[in-house]
Amino acid sequence: MQPISNNIGVALCTRCNYAEKDNGISPIDYQCQAKGLHNCINGYCTSCYKTHLPYSGGCYSRHTATGFAVCAEANQYELDNVTVCTECADTSHAPRNGACTLVSASGSLFSDCTKDADRGLCTGCSSAGKSFLFYGGCYDRSSHIGSRLCSEVAGGACKQWRSSFDFTFSKAGGTDRYLCGDANNGVHGCATCRYGNGVECTRCSAGYLGVDGRSCGKDCSGSTQGACSEVVEESSSVKVLSCRCVCKPTFYNNSGTCASCTDSCAVCKDGTSTGCQQCSPGKILNFSIASSESADCVNQCVAGSECAGCGLTIDGSRYCTRCKDSSTYPFNGVCVPDAQEDAYCAIYENGVCTACSEAAFLMSGGATQQHTIQATPSAMQRRVASARHPGGPADVRRGVWGQGSSDQGVCVCEIGTVLMRGVCASTRDAAKKKTAAIAAGATAGILVVGALAGFLCWWFICRRKRASFSSSCTTLIPPSKPM
Q1: Averaged over 157-169, what is the pLDDT?
Q2: Which of 74, 63, 70 is nearest to 102 (CA)?
Q3: At residue 314, what are phi and psi to the nearest 5 degrees?
Q4: Amino acid 312: pLDDT
Q5: CA distance to 104, 124, 138, 158, 344, per residue, from 128 (Å)
Q6: Is the confidence at residue 401, as pLDDT, over 60?
Q7: Residue 67 carries which DSSP code?
Q8: How far apart are CA 311 and CA 144, in angstroms?
Q9: C-alpha span between 127 and 153 (Å, rounded)
């Protein structure tokens, strides 16, 4: 038992009693407990996960008073799945493979270090060994961290740095290697980075990555908001949160700053004020140019000169479900000329599309492009992609479409099955029919499939029906009441 420093007199356990069958019980945050993500055996730890710092056989949280007594916060850097120290708080110690270790005379476990007389760091490493100097510490090339940093050592220095290790970087034309989080050369608080026209941070060790890619902060402010996703660490296979600041709705990333989109546009493509991907309520995308870099928003559906009925409302915007002109049909919720018939609608009549080509699928009397489901998350796209049935997600893929009237829903086959004679059958054995969704309708002339398949389609998908619709199957995206 020993005090961690002259200022913090806390007795530390350096080794725990352990059972033969459970030798992972080790000193972690002052208690003998399960090792968790730390590397521990026979009652003590040999290395700690990046949330903790190693000290005298135990692991201690890096953000506590004990952690700061081992290594000041400014000297802690995330490197792979561990936190390394570049200068130890106790001046009798120095970093060995990133962990503060007592430096003593020849014959000790850490004799490679030529220690600074007044500071807890190394100024050089023995040329006789396989260690190299890196940020105030000596790293053994055969150690986990040492092997990730360097592939060739000579004379106490690394002769060949590993460029693929994205926790460090080299400047253009330089031979020195720097930590991504180096406040002087890199980005303070950065864990991983790449070097192009300066250092660009790709993940912060804690907090949020700024929209400029060159700052890490505790939170997001101004016209930005936080967005986090899980990433898997390569060396530990542990899932960790990677958070960044993104531009708020109605703003876009313009070379590292958030600028306003054009009026009525809620989400626009990064790098341009136009190129709208989602409109504000009351407006809808002009799908005739939605695939270009200059897509804009147009007024929502109004029953009148072009549209006979606005039967679909999504996120506060109305879409057309029947056109006035019999030679037009709703394409992505907007009436378009029949010049696009060959591309999207195979059969149309009375202002609605009744059968789509392979380039689109039928929805609420109109044709909807396949690519819009997988493109930007606009209101309509989210509603389409969210259609589900108990057996799995609806598979709206090319070639799977139904024929029917404008008020007819389209049930589609699940993955691994194909539509054969109106029934979803297994691709492995066409004779074994799966009870996936099938096209259904109540209008005359629709082929009625077997009672069992029809019942199952109704049971799993079509139980809800609207009073104003004649179909026995709900639409893929249920329209709201016409306004």
Answers
A1: 94
A2: 70
A3: -130, 125
A4: 85
A5: 17, 12, 13, 13, 74
A6: no
A7: H
A8: 63
A9: 9
Band of residue 268 on the pLDDT scale cut at 50, 70, 90 = confident
Q: What is the rounded radius of gyration, in angstroms, for the C-alpha atoms of the chain? A: 32
Q: What is the pLDDT of residue 288?
A: 59
Burial class of residue 45 (count of CB atoms within 10 Å of its CB; 0-12, 13-18, 19+): buried
Rounded distance between C-alpha atoms, residue 32 and residue 14, angstroms? 10
Q: Read off the pLDDT band of 476 (50, 70, 90).
A: very low
HEC-encoded secondary structure of 164-230: CCCCEECCCCCCCCEECCCCCCCCCCEEEEEEECEEEEEEECCCEECCCCCCEECCCCCCEEEEEEE
Q: Which helix (H) or strand (E) holds 454?
A: helix 451-460
Phi, psi of 189 (to 5 degrees): 85, 0
Residue 197 has pLDDT above 60, yes or no: yes
295 touches 285 (CB < 8 A): yes
d(C-alpha 282, C-alpha 297), whole Å: 10
- What whole-number distance in Å separates Cα of residue 449 and Cα of residue 434? 13
Q: Quote the tokens at residue 185.
A: 């050369």
Residues in the chain: 483
Angle at 77 between CA 62 and CA 163, to 5 degrees: 150
Q: pTM of the prediction?
A: 0.60
Rounded to 5°, the CA angle 222-223-228 comes to 100
- The token pair at 97 is 């493979």
CA geometry: angle 62, 177, 209, nearest 5 deg: 55
Interior CA angle at 167 toward 166 and 173, to 5°?
A: 65
Using an 8 Å Cβ cutoff, are 462 and 440 in contact?
Answer: yes
Phi/psi class of residue 99: alpha, beta or left (left: φ > 0; alpha: ψ in -120 to 50)? beta
- The sign of the CA dihedral 414, 415, 420, 424 is negative
Are 321 and 356 contacting, i.e. CB atoms less than 8 angstroms apart?
A: no
